[in-house]
Automatic annotation (TrEMBL):
Protein family according to the UniProt entry: Belongs to the ABC transporter superfamily. ABCB family. Multidrug resistance exporter (TC 3.A.1.201) subfamily.
Membrane topology, from the record: Multi-pass membrane protein
PROSITE patterns: ABC_TM1F (PS50929), ABC_TRANSPORTER_1 (PS00211), ABC_TRANSPORTER_2 (PS50893)
GO CC annotations, alphabetized: mitochondrial inner membrane; plasma membrane
Any GO MF annotation of the entry: ATP hydrolysis activity
Record-linked CDD domains: ABC_6TM_Pgp_ABCB1_D1_like, ABC_6TM_Pgp_ABCB1_D2_like, ABC_MTABC3_MDL1_MDL2
InterPro entries: AAA+_ATPase, ABC1_TM_dom, ABC1_TM_sf, ABC_transporter-like_ATP-bd, ABC_transporter-like_CS, P-loop_NTPase, Type_1_exporter
Tagged with keyword Transmembrane helix: yes
UniProt protein name: ATP-binding cassette, sub-family B (MDR/TAP), member 11a
Assigned keywords, A-Z: ATP-binding, Cell membrane, Glycoprotein, Membrane, Nucleotide-binding, Repeat, Translocase, Transmembrane, Transmembrane helix, Transport
Record domain ABC transporter: where: 375-611, 1006-1244
One Gene Ontology biological process: oligopeptide export from mitochondrion
Amino acid sequence: STISHFQFQFATWKDIVMMVVGSVCALVHGAASPLMLLVYGMMTNTFVDYEREVQELKDPNKTCNNNTIYWVNDTVYETDENTTLYCGVDIEAQMTLFAYYYVGIGFGVLIVSYFQIAFWVTAAAKQTQRIRKTYFRKVMRMEIGWFDCNSVGELNTRISDDINKINSAIADQVSIFIERISTFVFGFMVGFIGGWKLTLVVIAVSPLIGIGAGLMAVARLTGRELKAYAKAGAVADEVLSSIRTVAAFGGEEKEAERYDRNLVEAQNWGVKKGTIIGVFQGYLWCIIFLCYGLAFWYGSKLVIDTKEMTAGTLIQVFFGVLMAAMNLGQASPCLEAFASGRAAAKSIFETIDREPEIDCLSEEGHKLDKVQGDIEFHNITFYYPSRPDVKILDNLSMQIRAGETTAFVGPSGSGKSTTVQLIQRFYDPKEGTVTLDGHDIHTLNIQWLRSLIGIVEQEPVLFATTIAENIRFGRPGVTVDDIIQAAKEANAYNFIMELPQKFETMVGEGGGQMSGGQKQRIAIARALIRNPKILLLDMATSALDNESEAVVQEALDNVRTGRTTISIAHRLSTIRNADVIIGFEHGQAVERGTHSELLGKQGVYFTLVTLQSQGQTNTTSGRSHVVCQISLRLRSLSQLSNDFVPDALSGSLKIQQNDVEEHVEPAPVARILKYNQQEWPYMLLGSLGAAVNGSVNPIYAILFSQILGTFAIQDLNEQRKQINGICVLFCIVAVASFISQFLQGYSFAKSGELLTRRLRKVGFQAMLKQEIGWFDNPINSPGALTTRLATDASMVQGATGPQIGMIVNSLTSIGVSFIIAFYFSWKLTLVILCFLPLIGLSGVFQAKMLTGFANEDKKAMEEAGQVSSEALANIRTIAGLAKESSFVDSYEQKLELPYKSAKKKANIYGLCFGFAQCVIFMAYAASFRYGGFLVRAEGLQYMFVFRVISAVVISGTALGRASSFTPDYAKAKTAAAQFFKLLDRVPKISISQSDGEKWENFRGEINFLNCKFTYPTRPDTQVLKGLRVSVNPGQTLAFVGSSGCGKSTSVQLLERFYDPDEGQVVIDSVPSHSVNVPFLRSQIGIVSQEPVLFDCSIAENIQYGDNTRSVSMEEIIEASKKAYLHDFVMTLPDKYETQVGAQGSQLSRGQKQRIAIARAIVRNPKILLLDEATSALDTESEKTVQTALDEARKGRTCIVIAHRLSTIQTADIIAVMSHGAVIEQGTHDKLMAKRGAYYKLVTTGAPIN
């Protein structure tokens, strides 16, 4: 019950008045067409009488006197049935009267239909606006636990799509539904008034027509193709988002094959769908013609034999019932809109009615006058709402004293970050209390509480605005001086002043334009400007390299004084100087004390310290080993800090996106057809079917008028014979039309789907051929490319099959109609032709209405959508800053424009609709009036008048309708153009097997000679500025340096993901740009920081290492033993067949890392690249992985990139990089002796300049 009235619970009385008036108008509009039938029936009778009179008076012995026919000798002429005959019909006066009727009805319709649409659409726009505001405001008030259970993507779709669905369910659809139902009712009424017997007969068969029309609507609306394509789409998405891995391991061919295999399902479904539509359409037309046959046969019996009906009432009944049936069928798509609107409304209104457990916008709760900053946890037990089965905190008690710095340490997953979130009151504990200065934080005002707290997270979130604005988010109403002061305290002032626009620099979406250290410092400034009493640092420096870490650490040390500070860290160097250290394990605080006290206790802290300082004492108790294993699993599930690790590239490029939407010339159809030429037999068959379909309507016009003509024949037997002949013809047409519709549907679906599949495969292969730089461009982000494959390819087929079908269909339809019309009366045809463009237009309009208006609204909503998606993605940060209300305001402000345009559109839409509806009435008025004149003046047979008018009008409406059914032709051509542009693009780095040199014994000697390089998407920053370094075969070269100095870039040049702008990379004394790319890559194995695994089994992931052959199981096991992976795999239930999940999500980082190493070993590469292969691991896994790597390095040239210096001391050459060039190189001992940058780094972790 709640949902049935849902739709209007946001309506004000004004809206309700509008909707009521709109409904009344719709009712009246629905009655117009049946009314027209009454006029039409009267008119037919007039014509039949006149024709009779003309036939009788052909006999020179009869004359017309006092409106009765007399013999010339003045006796009244009586027919066989002893009745007199009426004569003296003034056909022109009668026709003029009818013309006025028509015009009157037409004007009425124009006005009524305008109000019907304008009122409903306006009212809907107002309500939707209200729903959007209420919904967003409610979502922003929800507690964080609710966001854990609802994905941000889902909420975004709800805000945009679901509310649009509600909108379409309460807008014009309702009025059109009312109008169609009203036509249905009045149609039957007209029928029953005219003749109940015939009405009942037609009613008996009309459900068949209704079902046909309904089925058509349903068949067209299924979105199953996209579902069928989903599998292939998932493959494409997975491959494109990990394109670097695919390229590095030469998996392009393999992936294209895998994609093509998955396309079969989509293709079969498409053919099925086309066939089904063909059958339904065939069925619909077949039934309609059979009904015509039946009705005319029975109706003529009633007219001739029992005389209970006239020819006029026959037509009136027949069309009344037919119209009613058709309209009932057409009302069914509206029901679909209502149903989806109700389903959408259910989730929306559930959210609107839900009361948040922790309401951040509420005014309730105390505000303390003076805050010390003592925090205590009393016996806290806690589970995340999204995972109620995992106990995170287990009876935790601890106290944090005001003004001290307390550090939390412990393996990941032991509940450190969780405690921080409880202090912010993102969650409420299951049991126990958190108190601030002895007050339970439940009783405090949330906004006020959060305003006391400054937080700096591991992955700080910046908003897509300027630096100054980002800092200002910390506290409303701060001055510029405050901002500068905060920036200075956070060590951020200097780097900000070096930027061209200083504080007005845009930070990009998610802060993508800034490096990690810069983002971190802006976030610290934002926390400081609040002047917080409590400072929470959650792994604030863990994602940084040594240089940035030192700077950020210094900033943090300065600001901690006099504040209650809680610091969580993995790196112990950052914890040593805390006042108190609390060790966590299994959700409990197990120890507490200073650095030296805890070392004495030999507990959790001691274990972590010894593991990290590599002081390999054997105190690593077995217990701790288990802890690390477990904690890793937990962390990867708990998705707190690592939930959102933006891809460095996609982040940094969002900004330039707007100006790159370039204009593409539509593709020539000839080229599209060329791709489809193998299917020509199908297309020929389809066109034949279409031609037959086109000529059906005009033939119907002939048969229809022929029947009217028979009623004027005097000889009754002749009359019956003719009528039976016509009814048989109807049946023949019915069968022919079924067959041809089926042919057209099936053939074009088959040719179209084959084309789609071919294009998708070719397009996917073309994408995989592009160089990596091409993927960096935001236009070619994986999301955009997969959509392109999904939609563009299927749109292109709209330019071939259906388009050809439609053109053939329309041409034959028009051709045959005009031949008929001109043959019988060219004058009348010319008159009607004037109206034809208008009738066609009105058909197009009506089609456009159903589709076109939705798309325009979407565009307008985009800006508001950006606000909402940014707000939802960063909800934690916003909650921490207590900034919910400012996002709500900004969202509501962005909604104003679309709302205004929606109101304006309502009027335009109403006018178009009204015009489209009334054109046909005007056309009838003019043509019948002129027809009447021709009948009188030129003795034209009246049945020819009907024949001509119905032929032309039918072809006109058919035209308009047909044009609406074809998928948008222009879109298809643009889609094709984009596609061909992709196919024609020549990649800058060719990966074909034939280009470039290969040689026999590859040694693996590498020289970088003065390489300079700039990323194509960021042309203003040069990354490498003359890199020179060389490695001999079998040596290990380690790159050290601050982030952004070009370490990873040099590896990408070696893989030839990019080529240097100047200088060369020389491999075995051959410059890299002349080496065959697949050959070069087959010699290189790479293990990167975040290894990409594919969603298949462990064995298949390892096999991916060598795609040129199939790798045997023995080799896999061999490799995984070397990678220290084998033992772990054997503990899994499915061993090597275990699925790793999307992006390897089922495994911990250390396990993923070792699979990646095994994958690299299977390649048996000559060169091994390790790009920060251990940086993301905790200490325990790091040791295992490190051992595996040392094993793999034996006898290979190896390039290592590391943030942690401990991992590279054994390297043959250590190259210290700064700003894209090497500043010193040598072995560890040499460099230590040199006492240069490296020495400084090792001893202090100080920045390199």
